[in-house]
Write a structure and sequence with these properties.
heterodimer, A: about 280 residues, mainly alpha, 2 domains, about 75% helix, B: about 325 residues, two-stranded antiparallel sheet, flat, MetI-like (chain A), transport (chain A), membrane (chain A), MetI-like_sf (chain A)
């Protein structure tokens, strides 16, 4: 018998230090919204001595924050929906309908994954402008979908090909058409991968900054990432207001993360491990 | 003989031929369209193909074309400047800085961020509730939007309010505005980058480590391997594919760093903290220098392509 395992203190101290490095700025942000500017200056990281609620109240008061969140949500929703539909359709043709030259076409989509979206951002901007999509939410959604396709087709195809081929043979013997097979068999069996890709696209869209910055001009259309930068521009160094604003805007992402951890981790690292 | 063929006959022959070809087409169609196979193809493929071509592939080609003009994006590009944009670019000292900064990000990722992520992954990859909690904490920064993370750290680095003010007060010196300091601003950004992304790499390593068969580690222990030897000779070789992937991601990410720069410094002070993309944004997009901006994009694109191919042919050679 071994004696009681000794607790590796060194390891825990190290982990606690790193955890502190990660968490202290976050706690300071949440608490900073409850402090007056004077207190923030003398006590940036501790608990507030006097809890002030007005800064948080003001963030909600003018209502623009709801509009921002709504826009972000609309953009994210349609990006996820379109990526899932178009991505699965394409991946299905690659996995189940082999046609002449499909490998080249598949690689065509894969090379897109290596392109940095920013490299061609000016021509992309002109394209969006010439198509009349400037300053509209679809001008953000459609390019986002296009850029997410390579990655999602890769993950979908890998998953579809791992489904037992007996399913497909049986369906074909029963006279099931390809479209029906896709709709009634493939999609219902693919919920794990749909969730994984969906979460990836959702998070990427929710956090996207460069594309909306380029495409959108009117504040009515802004997603929260643009709103937060504008708020910071308005209030300059009134850090307590800005911190309250940051806290409110990042809360949905953190809550979502706590609830959907498994899928988020898979969605964000899954491509790496499986690919 | 052929002269005797009447027009009617000719028509007949022709129609016979076309009927035959029609027949073969329809036969080919029937043979290949079992279960509406072809129809599905025609319905399912074009949306992705169109979107991808129009918004991803074409703009890359256009960037190459536009980069040879001086153009503000209105009308047709007419002012051909050959490689003028490129020579202007390579002479610009801010572009030099941007390239160096990008290299610094890559260096810090490989020398500090990835080893840190690996050490942490090794110490918390086993399943237990404390380990899950640590994993959760370390991954948290990664899911924050870059702009939010940037603003949080801008506060932390603020010489009047943040951690810097606590330091300078404790030392009784003047306030230090690190983000406005030419020499140190980018170091501050590197700290934020590590903070933001090490959790992502940690997760890749954890996923890989959990796939390492336990009996291998047990066997190495029975053979008298120390903990360090077990890590160095057993675990790390077995997760090498995870490591190559994470290096790949960190370099590709470094080449595209932008969102964090804007809320932290916006590229300043005096253009000392630009990355390739923030440089492209500042000097190409905000001034609508389509030609010049496209030239930056082309350079960025070529960097990525060269990197991707050398990477594939060296690091991933044995992984086919």
């Amino acid at each position: 018998m071994f004696a009681m395992r000794k607790i590796p203190w060194g390891k825990y101290i190290f982990l606690m230090l790193v955890a502190g490095f990660v968490l202290v700025p976050m706690f300071a942000t949440v608490l900073g919204g409850f402090k007056s500017l004077g207190e923030l200056r003398t006590n940036p990281f501790g608990l507030p001595e006097v809890w002030e609620f007005e800064y948080y109240a003001q963030v909600f008061a003018d209502g623009s924050i709801w509009q921002l969140m709504k826009n972000s949500l609309i953009i994210a929703f349609f990006s996820v929906l379109l990526t899932l539909i178009i991505g699965t359709m394409t991946a299905f043709t690659f996995s189940h309908i082999k046609f002449a030259g499909y490998k080249y076409l598949y690689n065509y989509f894969l090379i897109g994954m290596m392109f940095p979206a920013a490299a061609a951002i000016l021509p992309l901007f002109l394209k969006i402008r010439d198509l009349g999509l400037l300053d509209s939410l679809s001008g953000v959604v459609i390019p986002q979908v296009a850029f997410g396709l390579g990655f999602s087709i890769l993950l979908f195809r890998t998953f579809f090909e791992q489904l037992p081929s007996e399913l497909f043979d049986a369906a074909r013997v029963d006279g099931c058409s390809y479209i029906k097979f896709y709709w009634h068999v493939i999609l219902p069996l693919s919920t794990p991968i749909l969730a994984t890709v969906g979460v990836f696209v959702l998070v990427a869209s929710w956090n996207n900054y460069l594309l909306p910055l380029l495409v959108l001009n009117t504040e009515q259309q802004y997603p929260w990432t643009l709103g937060i930068m504008q708020y910071r521009g308005e209030y300059g160094i009134e850090w307590n207001r800005i911190l309250a604003y940051v806290t409110v805007t990042i809360t949905p992402a953190i809550v979502f993360f706590l609830f959907a951890q498994k899928y988020i981790v898979e969605g964000l690292t899954g491509g790496a491990v499986k690919g | 003989m052929s002269n005797n063929v009447t027009p009617e006959k000719r028509v007949k022959v022709a129609s016979n031929q076309s009927a035959a070809s029609n027949q073969s087409v329809s036969r080919w169609f029937k043979k290949n369209n079992h279960g509406n196979r072809l129809l599905t193809l025609v319905l399912f493929l074009p949306p992705a193909l169109l979107l991808f071509t129009i918004f991803v592939i074409l703009p890359i080609g256009e960037a190459g074309y536009y980069s040879l003009f001086r153009w503000n994006g209105y009308g047709e590009p007419t002012k051909w400047v050959e490689f003028g944009n490129y020579t202007r670019l390579f002479k610009h000292s801010a572009f030099d800085t941007a390239v160096w900064n990008t290299l610094k990000i890559i260096l810090i990722s490989i020398v500090i961020q990835l080893p840190l992520a690996l050490i942490i992954a090794l110490s918390i990859y086993k399943k237990s509730w404390t380990n899950s909690l640590f994993r959760l904490i370390f991954f948290l920064p990664y899911i924050l939007a870059e702009v939010a993370a940037g603003l949080i750290w801008r506060f932390v680095f603020d010489g009047d309010y943040g951690v810097m003010s606590s330091f300078t007060e404790a030392l009784n010196t003047d306030s230090w505005y690190i983000l406005a300091d030419n020499n140190w601003a980018f170091v501050a950004i590197l700290v934020v980058l590590v903070w933001k992304y090490f959790g992502f790499h940690m997760m890749i390593y954890i996923a890989a480590l959990q796939g390492v068969p336990k009996d291998l580690i047990e066997a190495s222990k029975l053979d008298g391997a120390s903990r360090f030897q077990a890590i160095w000779y057993v675990k790390i070789p077995l997760i090498i594919s995870g490591i190559t992937i994470s290096i790949f991601f960190s370099i590709l990410g470094a080449l595209q760093t932008f969102d964090l720069i804007m809320p932290l410094t916006g590229g300043g002070p005096s253009n000392s903290t630009h990355t390739l993309v923030s440089y492209l944004y500042t000097f190409g997009i905000t001034r609508m220098n389509v030609g010049f901006g496209s030239a930056v994009g082309v350079v960025l694109f070529i960097c990525c392509v060269i990197f991707a191919f050398t990477y594939q042919s060296t690091m991933m050679k044995d992984k086919k």
